[in-house]
Amino acid sequence: MFADRVLSGMRPTGSLHLGHYHGVLKNWVQMQHEMECLFFVADWHALTTHYDTPQVIEQSVWDMVIDWLAAGVDPAHSTLFIQSRVPEHAELHLLLSMITPLGWLERMPTYKDQQEKLSGKDLSTYGFLGYPLLQSADILIYRATQVPVGEDQVPHIEFTREIARRFNHIYGREIGFEEKAEAAIKKMGSKKGRLYSELRTKYQEQGDDEALLAAKALLDEQQNLSHGDRERLFGYLEGSGKMILSEPQAMLTAASRMPGLDGQKMSKSYGNTISMREDEESVTKKIRTMPTDPARIRRTDPGTPEKCPVWQLHQVYSSDDTKQWVQQGCTSAGIGCIECKQPVIQGVLDEQRPMRERAQYYLDDPTLVKNIIADGCEKARELARDTMRDVREAMGLSYS
Ligand code: SF4
What we know:
It is built from 18 helices and 5 strands. It is mainly alpha-helical and 400 residues long. 36% of the residues are buried.
């Protein structure tokens, strides 16, 4: 229905580490050249679990934006903004809550999981129960078509699609819809109008998805249709109502395989991280002292790389030649562990160097970051206002 638009956010609950870089940010950097991208600081989401430590959120917001910029997220190619600076998210969240069955939220698999995981916190709050709906509002307000998520978040996208469908079903009905849609087809001109009708019939009678895509592409090209007519014709393709909110697709991202210093997945909760901009001395020390194959007690003992956390880091940072050197040297006790760790140290430092340089540029002049965010919030608000105009109108709230 709308041109491809990606939305992705991160909760500001602490500094970012290399797991975030490999798992999320590298993907953002690549996507920003391929599609329209909106990246946001999900500060309201952070409050759903960190409501009693607001100071962490405040500090993390700016550090996190600098981490994004350091990773190569480019404000010339993507829109960066802070969720709470676009209050329309809250309005849409509230309005969607009017039509959201409580059971849909209570059944979200992450609801119980997270409550169990964060058992030290009282998460029997209204905000925590409703956070998937806030996420839906974040997505729907920008009419995002693609949302990069890991496997565990797929139910949230499915939930968002259901909310959009329910909204369109309740509010997309209008008196004389079919007549208005037929009138809109005439406005496309006889040739394109006929093509639209043929593709619509093909889709509705034969379930031909390609015909649906072709019809959508045809509508995207139409310059002479009003926004309302376009929505009507998108809705007319698939049903009998206006499509006010568009259903997003989950863009499944591979789970980050970035290992931490102990061989488990890199995660703040395991205390096994290297921060994205950690200083060289600290990185070197952390890797030098990280555990190795427990069976390799003496330098003269041969080791098994597959049982060693350092080997996992070689998978990320080393060339095939180096990996062969490790295999050969470790299993024959030809190299020591400190020697083996050196290419990993070098790999991490080489990766971090340009990040540190980019970050320094923004640390030297924090107003640059504030301006990037101010611009991004303004752009995001414009898009959000567009959607809210339609939502308010559909819900009988546009008083003019
Ligand atoms: S030589 Fe390398 S792979 Fe082998 S145990 Fe030591 S650090 Fe691990």
